[in-house]
Amino acid sequence: MWPTLSPLLRLLILTQLAFNVGFFAVLPFLAEHLGGALGMAGWLVGLVLGLRTFSQQGLFVVGGALTDRHGVRPVVLTGCALRIAGFGWLGYAERTWSVLGAVLLIGFAAALFSPAVESETARQAVHWERAGHGPRTRVLALFTVAGQAGAFTGPLLGALLLAVDFRTACLAGAGVFVLVLAGHLRLLPRHIPGRTRAPVRGGAGAVLRNRRFLALCGAYGAYLLSYNQLYLALPAEVERATGSQAPLAWLFALSSLLVVLAQLPVTHWAAERLDPRRCLAAGLLLVAAGFAVVAAARPAGWTGAGGLVPAAGFVVLLTLGQMLVVPAARAWVPDLAEDGRLGLYTGALSSLSGLLVLLGSSATGALLDGGLPPAVPWLILAAVPLLALCALPRRPEHPGGGPGTAAAR
């Protein structure tokens, strides 16, 4: 498959790999740093993580609209520069206001470069499909694999650097983005053939009137809130079971390794048997099952190595759900977007989903701190993806269409 990809698609896929190496060298350890070294309460940790997600996912719509207007290159380069500054700031932040400023800058940086890279990858995947190479979901699955390869490497790098301190991990993450910035200054084209510039204004109304797209955002937002528990609920469970955060890096590595090894076969299987709606539904059911596994085991109060088994089951089922949900959702967006506004729609998917994460993250932090019976928080979390099934849009009428086909529907 790799030889059939254009040089631009290869660069975009490798970009996702590099982004995640730098990002995941820091993020998995942020909750413990905030709650341990800085002594923040659980609800405040949840709020900080939620604001980080919202400043990223919630502002994707800004990065997507700017990409439609100005092109991929300037938006990606600006985002990389801001991420470098944000990681450097976070490494030295000790007060709450300073931490909030750093995580907001880190999130906004991704709100610029991620929708630019993701929307152009989706656009190029449609062209690849139209050229007769196969379903676009295969390209998007390879994009996911590259990201997870970075997510596999990043936590291992971060765990090694934490032997020094959290600041060193932050500075190393910033260093990765310095290399990304330098590479893209040289390799990313100034103009990509086939891209047309769209005005920044005028697209939001069409997005908000697109009921099928909004329904997709609701379902994807519930998935994203569930996935965010890798950074909030999972660290708390690992700490309870072992009294240490050390196993966390290995659980993140397990998740990433599963995606690297199984994403392409799973996507190939799903593309042959399931339309995007069914693929999303199956993924959400697997995510709910992951929370249910921990809920079933919590009353027993297992600790030590045995106590990590439910957490590992949660990670495996959540990751399998992710393998189905993410490529299907990304492949569906070009069929719902207007001509010239794929960046806006790609960004809006993450922005509206990020709003749901912001609303849910503080509640989740309070839920985990609330002194409820051990299984109850995990059962409530299991209900979130199940409720999301009700929000799924109806089955697509024309799967495999290209950007702009939604305008006729």
From TrEMBL:
<feature type="transmembrane region" description="Helical">
    <location>
        <begin position="99"/>
        <end position="118"/>
    </location>
</feature>
<feature type="transmembrane region" description="Helical">
    <location>
        <begin position="37"/>
        <end position="54"/>
    </location>
</feature>
<keyword id="KW-0813">Transport</keyword>
<feature type="transmembrane region" description="Helical">
    <location>
        <begin position="375"/>
        <end position="392"/>
    </location>
</feature>
<feature type="transmembrane region" description="Helical">
    <location>
        <begin position="246"/>
        <end position="267"/>
    </location>
</feature>
<feature type="transmembrane region" description="Helical">
    <location>
        <begin position="213"/>
        <end position="234"/>
    </location>
</feature>
<dbReference type="InterPro" id="IPR036259">
    <property type="entry name" value="MFS_trans_sf"/>
</dbReference>
<dbReference type="GO" id="GO:0022857">
    <property type="term" value="F:transmembrane transporter activity"/>
</dbReference>
<keyword id="KW-1003">Cell membrane</keyword>
<feature type="transmembrane region" description="Helical">
    <location>
        <begin position="279"/>
        <end position="297"/>
    </location>
</feature>
<keyword id="KW-0812">Transmembrane</keyword>
<feature type="transmembrane region" description="Helical">
    <location>
        <begin position="139"/>
        <end position="160"/>
    </location>
</feature>
<feature type="transmembrane region" description="Helical">
    <location>
        <begin position="342"/>
        <end position="363"/>
    </location>
</feature>
<dbReference type="GO" id="GO:0005886">
    <property type="term" value="C:plasma membrane"/>
</dbReference>
<keyword id="KW-1133">Transmembrane helix</keyword>
<dbReference type="InterPro" id="IPR011701">
    <property type="entry name" value="MFS"/>
</dbReference>
<dbReference type="InterPro" id="IPR050171">
    <property type="entry name" value="MFS_Transporters"/>
</dbReference>
<dbReference type="Pfam" id="PF07690">
    <property type="entry name" value="MFS_1"/>
</dbReference>
<protein>
    <submittedName>
        <fullName>MFS transporter</fullName>
    </submittedName>
</protein>
<feature type="transmembrane region" description="Helical">
    <location>
        <begin position="309"/>
        <end position="330"/>
    </location>
</feature>
<keyword id="KW-0472">Membrane</keyword>
<feature type="transmembrane region" description="Helical">
    <location>
        <begin position="12"/>
        <end position="31"/>
    </location>
</feature>
<feature type="transmembrane region" description="Helical">
    <location>
        <begin position="75"/>
        <end position="93"/>
    </location>
</feature>
<feature type="transmembrane region" description="Helical">
    <location>
        <begin position="166"/>
        <end position="188"/>
    </location>
</feature>
